[in-house]
Design a protein that fits this description.
Distance between the termini: 51 Å
Number of domains: 1
Shape: globular
Helix content: 25-40%
Number of helices: 6
Largest sheet: 7 strands, mixed
Strand content: 15-25%
Strand order of the largest sheet: 1-9-6-2-5-3-4
Length: 224
């Protein structure tokens, strides 16, 4: 039982994820509709057609600052459903709520909270035929630095990576750690989907992470 005065969405333990209280769904749903309309105005270019995923699921990779576009890509480009790794934080709880209304299921966890449980849940989702969506620099950065969790998932499932290179022609960036990008309505978005093989036997997690980090930065216009 919760103590008196404890917020309803606060976890009972440090490892439990935050959840959105039921009464907030009164405005979450209308706001999600606004986001749907916003996404519908964007002009996707490049690999914006239906991706052939008939051979099985992939580990989808995109940088955290491009998460706004994830629902649109999931709907337009894939025949399979997507299960996304979302942090256990309060911000993650809101993201889960919006993703749910847009057809994306969520697994809660990160590298420092519920990491092992999240990896197991994503493995099960992929074995059930779903793509697994991961932001390798989330949930708290550093931005554009690839953490090895996605590599572990690929090894466990024996499934390849699919890199989502996203470039906005015009966007507004928030003051968050990742400088989260919001594309301007009716602006152009360049999408590039690149398949990368699962880690080779004997290839270290660090080597795979460095290779994928460099490639994803290049595809997203963030190469340094």
């Amino acid at each position: 039982m919760r103590e008196k005065g404890v917020p309803e969405n606060r976890p009972d333990s440090p490892d439990a994820p935050f959840v959105v209280p039921w009464y907030h769904w009164i405005w979450v749903a209308p706001f999600a509709l606004v986001l749907r309309l916003w996404l519908a105005t964007l002009r996707l270019r490049g690999d914006a057609g239906r991706h052939d995923d008939s051979e099985g699921p992939s580990v989808l990779l995109l940088w955290h600052d491009k998460l706004f576009l994830a629902p649109l890509i999931a709907q337009k480009c894939f025949g399979r459903k997507v299960s996304a790794l979302i942090s256990t934080s309060k911000d993650g709880a809101w993201l889960v709520a919006f993703f749910k209304l847009m057809g994306i299921t969520a697994v809660r966890g990160s590298s420092n909270r519920r990491g092992a449980a999240a990896l197991i849940a994503l493995t099960r989702a992929m074995r059930d035929g779903l793509h697994a969506g991961i932001t390798p620099d989330g949930p708290k950065g550093p931005a554009l630095v690839f953490k090895p969790g996605a590599v572990s998932l690929s090894r466990l499932t024996r499934r390849p990576f699919l890199l989502l290179g996203i470039r906005y022609a015009s966007c507004y960036r928030l003051g968050s750690w990742d400088r989260f990008a919001l594309p301007m309505p009716f602006s152009r978005v360049e999408l590039t989907l690149v398949r990368e093989a699962m880690p080779a036997e004997g290839e270290s997690d660090e080597s795979v992470s460095a290779r994928l980090q460099s490639r994803l930065r290049e595809l997203s216009g963030d190469a340094v």
